[in-house]
Structures are given as structure tokens and as C-alpha cells.
Amino acid sequence: MEIENRVAIITGAASGIGHAVCLELAAKGVKAIAMVDMNDEVKVAADQINREAGREVAVPYIGDTTNEKFRANVFDSISRDNGTARICVPCAGITRDALAVKINKETGKAEIYSVDKFRQVIEVNLIAPVYWVMEMIARIAEERAQKGMKKWHPDERLQGTAIFIGSISSQGNKGQVSYASTKAGLEGAAATLTKEAIFHGVRCGVIHPGFTDTPMVRALGEEYIEKNILKDTQLGRLIRPTEIADAICFMIKNSAVSGELWADAGWHPSPA
Ligand SMILES: NC(=O)c1ccc[n+]([C@@H]2O[C@H](COP(=O)([O-])OP(=O)(O)OC[C@H]3O[C@@H](n4cnc5c(N)ncnc54)[C@H](O)[C@@H]3O)[C@@H](O)[C@H]2O)c1
């Protein structure tokens, strides 16, 4: 699917992978990008992209991706000014890491991972991305229905592409019971939407990045990264956000690519 002249919605766009995807899409000639983030740094990021692109391509939207009204407003606003959004990459994500079960050394009692934290991670990392993508599919479906179009035909151009951000943690990672569950959950959602959304001409895929050099990973600390991450990667370094953004654009552009792409720098975790 062509990227040039399309309208894109990227969440988590103020930082890391989301920001890198926006830079890459702008360089590839996308018409407009809704840059969505709860951090108002997203304004600075959009200004920078517009300056570099030499045109008003990036539009910042500040808000919480779990808020349904905000989601609808972003889609209304970006499509009113630029046309229907046809690329959606929901990157906003959080970690709330802790062991699933841990013995409290003082009381001898087992402490179970906080259910509130689990629900928060599910809201942000699983439910929100799936709904941002379903919102794009819904708007494309409505547009086609209004033209009297039914099942998509290959003679028609592809109508849209969504790429979810999974993680190598979807295969299990100590201390990430909530995060890993959401990332594995995205696989089921994407596989289902892949089967349903092609009726409207929309493709879905999942990229599973390995440890990427973003604030989310830097928050683990240099020592942790050195001891627990780098030794298990073939590259011996963190992945660059631009490398993930490049792989995401490849998945969008190449319609023969379906399913899941592992961009993990040869991550081979040690057994437990
Ligand atoms: N960095 C990695 O190694 C790595 C690996 C695999 C997958 N991922 C995934 O890639 C995505 C991006 O991660 P990153 O490393 O760039 O992290 P990051 O922390 O640099 O960026 C995440 C952005 O999401 C925003 N955000 C979080 N919750 C939000 C919400 N509810 N509403 C709006 N904005 C919100 C934050 O403000 C932040 O700007 C996440 O889904 C993450 O799980 C990251």
C-alpha cells in the first residue's frame, strides 16, 4: 500500500518508536499525521517534523488514548481537514513491571501482582490500540458503504493498513505478567481483525520489537541493560527506533506481508 499522500494516525508519538514512525512517514511523503500523545512534548515533536519536512504534515493531539471521546475527536479532526485516515500505528504503551507472585520476607506471605496495575496496562496496551485500529476500519467501512460498495475486490486499491506494536515479551518475560499478556493479546486481536477487516480492504499486522533504545527501556537503567539485555542479543546493542520505524513502513508498503514480524535483533533469552 502506498504511503505517499495517505493520512496516518500514530499514538505514543511524542517519544521513542511512535516518534520515529512519524519521522519516517513524513520523509516518505505522507499527507498528514495525527501525532497523538498524553505528553504535551508531542507539540514540540510535531513542530520539529514540520520544520524538517518543510510543510505542515504533523498535527499534534494531546490526550489519553483510553478516552473514547478523545479518540473520536482525533479521527474527526484529522479526516475533516485531510481525508480518511488509512494508516494507523497505535504505539502508546506502558510497563508496570513486578513479579507475578513474591514472598514478603518480613511476613512470609505471598504477594500477588496488583490487579489495578494489571487493568491499567490492559486498558492502555491492549484495549486502546485495538479500538484505535477498529475506529479506522469503521470509518473506512462507512465511507465504502456510503458509496454502495460491499466486499472489497483486489481491483480496488487497498483501503488501509494497521500495524500493532507487540513485543518479544509476548512470549513471556520475567516481571512482565501484565505487559506480556497485553502484547500476546494483540496477536489474537490482530489475527481476528486481519480476517474481518479485509472485507473493507484493510490489512493488519503485528511487529514484535526487541529491546529498543527509547525512554521506556532506558528507564531500566544502564546496569540492567548491560547485564540482562545486551548479552542476549546478536547485535550486542539496543535496536534503534529508526530501525523499527523502517520495518513498520516496510510492513505498510508491502501488501504481501501479513501476520507478524519479529524485529528482535536475534534476542535469545536465557532459560529461567
Ligand atoms: N522500547 C522497546 O524496547 C519496546 C519493545 C517492544 C515493544 N515496545 C512497544 O513500543 C511502543 C512504544 O514504546 P517506546 O519504547 O517508544 O516507549 P516510550 O515510553 O518512549 O513512548 C511511549 C509514549 O506513549 C505515551 N503514552 C503512554 N500511555 C499513553 C496514553 N494512555 N495515552 C496517550 N499517550 C500515552 C507516552 O507519553 C510516551 O510518549 C509501546 O507499545 C511499547 O510497549 C517497545
Summary tags:
single chain, 272 residues, alpha/beta, Rossmann fold, seven-stranded parallel β-sheet, two-stranded antiparallel ribbon, 8 helices, binds nicotinamide-adenine-dinucleotide
Q: Care to describe what's here?
A:
Strand 1 (7-11), helix 1 (16-27) and strand 2 form a beta-alpha-beta unit. The mean pLDDT is 96. Strands 3-2-1-4-7-8-9 form a 7-stranded parallel β-sheet, with helices on both faces. Strands 5-6 form a two-stranded antiparallel sheet. The N and C termini lie far apart (41 Å). It is built from 8 helices and 9 strands. Helix 1 packs parallel to helix 2 (41-53), helix 1 crosses helix 8 and helix 4 packs parallel to helix 5. It has a single domain, classed as Rossmann fold. The chain is an alpha/beta fold and 272 residues long. The site of nicotinamide-adenine-dinucleotide (NAD) has 27 residues, from helix 1 and helix 6.
Short characterization:
The chain is α/β, with parallel strands linked by helices and 272 residues long. Helices cover 43% and strands 17% of the residues.
Q: Mind sketching the topology for me?
A:
Layout (H helix, E strand, L loop, with lengths): L6 E5 L4 H12 L4 E6 L3 H13 L4 E5 L5 H15 L2 E6 L10 E3 L6 E3 L2 H32 L13 E6 L11 H21 L4 E8 L5 H4 L3 H8 L11 H13 L5 E5 L9
Parallel strand pairs: 1-2, 1-4, 2-3, 4-7, 7-8, 8-9
Antiparallel strand pairs: 5-6
Helix pairs in contact: 1-2, 1-8, 4-5
The site of nicotinamide-adenine-dinucleotide has 27 residues, from helix 1 and helix 6.
